[in-house]
């Protein structure tokens, strides 16, 4: 299913408050408002991306455009940043100035789950079916969403490089847990000092950091400049520290209850989610759609393989879409 259109992909960008926290939303397609039940032009299906960490929507810009085109531009494809991970535009604060506190600890792991559910409740009609495409810790968030809100009309959930268990015991987790849980405050001062650099210099530093890649998505470089914001980094690292402590046991109950709706995609050299996690879940759920990457894609696929991943997902979902 490939689009033959060579016209520019319509992309709408919004910065909103959700649960009182700054949130960046990218919407692919002509649909900007899916909350009006009386509209006759509502699509039957919304593809919603739940990001990893850092949860900046900009990392998924190329991915959602490729996915939208691969779906013949028939369905909206949206990505919603994690609460407080985006750098708000001038004049917008990280936290909404209001006396009403919508959610305790919105920047924490539990808060990010409720943040996504709140976004759907306020912005998407209940009549619209959902395909949730989650990446990394977004997979844990997605399983929690399905557990807490069984009324959601989830057609499919695609879980890419899923960090849904024993993150702190993974090779990368063992390395990062002490830093994230005990030393993350040490990082704030150098980030604060770097934040004063001109934007061009920041971009050059990002390019230098990613120099080992043969091809790097330009939108990833632009988005990474956000990481020079102390507020963003503080929220990103705080969430990551909770991931190390709270994502321990795999939620096999929720997986079992929703197994026919789930597609898992594990990496072969993923230091956040080693291959024996794949072997174990495959053994526990032999009837599940649980796949192992044969293309050597990295955990952070958005840096250089967004179009390839979008093409694979389009292929996986063809049968589901023809039945709509």
Report on the architecture of this protein:
The protein is of the alpha/beta class and 324 residues long. The chain is built from 12 helices and 8 strands. The chain has helices at 61-70, 109-123, 137-148, 171-182, 188-194, 199-209, 218-224, 230-246, 252-257, 275-284, 306-316, 318-322, and strands spanning 11-18, 21-28, 45-50, 77-80, 129-135, 154-160, 262-266, 289-292. The chain has an 8-stranded mixed sheet with strand order 1-2-4-3-5-6-7-8. Helix 1 links the parallel strand 3 and strand 4 (77-80). The longest helix is centred in the last third of the chain and has 17 residues, at 230-246. It is globular and about 55 Å long. Residues 1-5 have low confidence and may be disordered.
Give the fraction of residues assigned to helices: 25-40%
Strand order of the largest sheet: 1-2-4-3-5-6-7-8
Mean pLDDT: 92
> What structural class should be given to the helix and strand makeup?
alpha/beta
Overall strand count = 8
Low-confidence stretches: 1-5
Order of helices and strands: EEEHEHEHEHHHHHHEHEHH
Tell me the major beta sheet: 8 strands, mixed
What gap, in angstroms, lies between the N and C termini? Answer: 15 Å
Q: Which percent range describes the beta-strand content?
A: 15-25%
């Amino acid at each position: 299913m490939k689009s033959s259109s060579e016209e520019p992909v319509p992309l709408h960008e919004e910065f909103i408050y959700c649960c009182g926290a700054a949130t960046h939303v990218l919407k692919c397609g002509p649909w900007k408002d899916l909350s009006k039940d009386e509209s006759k032009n509502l699509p039957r299906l919304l593809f919603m991306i739940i990001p990893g960490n850092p949860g900046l929507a900009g990392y998924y810009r190329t991915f959602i455009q490729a996915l939208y085109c691969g779906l013949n531009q028939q369905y909206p494809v949206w990505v919603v940043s994690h609460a407080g991970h985006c750098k708000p535009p001038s004049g917008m604060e990280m936290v909404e100035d209001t006396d009403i506190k919508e959610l305790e600890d919105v920047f924490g792991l539990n808060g990010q789950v409720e943040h996504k559910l709140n976004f759907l409740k306020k912005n998407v009609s209940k009549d619209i079916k959902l395909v949730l495409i989650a990446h990394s810790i977004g997979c844990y968030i997605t399983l929690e969403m399905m557990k807490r809100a069984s009324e959601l009309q989830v057609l499919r959930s695609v879980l890419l490089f899923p960090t849904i268990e024993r993150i702190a015991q993974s090779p990368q987790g063992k390395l990062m847990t002490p830093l994230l849980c005990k030393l993350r405050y040490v990082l704030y001062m150098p980030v604060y000092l770097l934040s004063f650099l001109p934007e061009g210099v920041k971009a050059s530093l990002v390019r230098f950091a990613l120099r080992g890649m043969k091809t790097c998505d330009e939108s990833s470089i632009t988005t990474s400049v956000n990481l020079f914001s102390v507020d963003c980094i503080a929220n990103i690292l705080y969430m990551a520290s909770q991931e190390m402590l709270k994502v321990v046991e795999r939620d096999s109950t929720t997986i079992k209850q929703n197994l026919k709706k789930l597609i898992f995609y594990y990496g072969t050299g993923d230091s956040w989610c080693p291959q024996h996690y794949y072997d174990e879940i495959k053994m526990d759920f032999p009837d599940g759609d649980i796949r192992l990457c044969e293309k050597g894609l990295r955990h952070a696929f958005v840096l250089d393989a967004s179009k390839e991943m979008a093409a694979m997902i389009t292929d996986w979902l063809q049968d589901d879409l023809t039945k709509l």
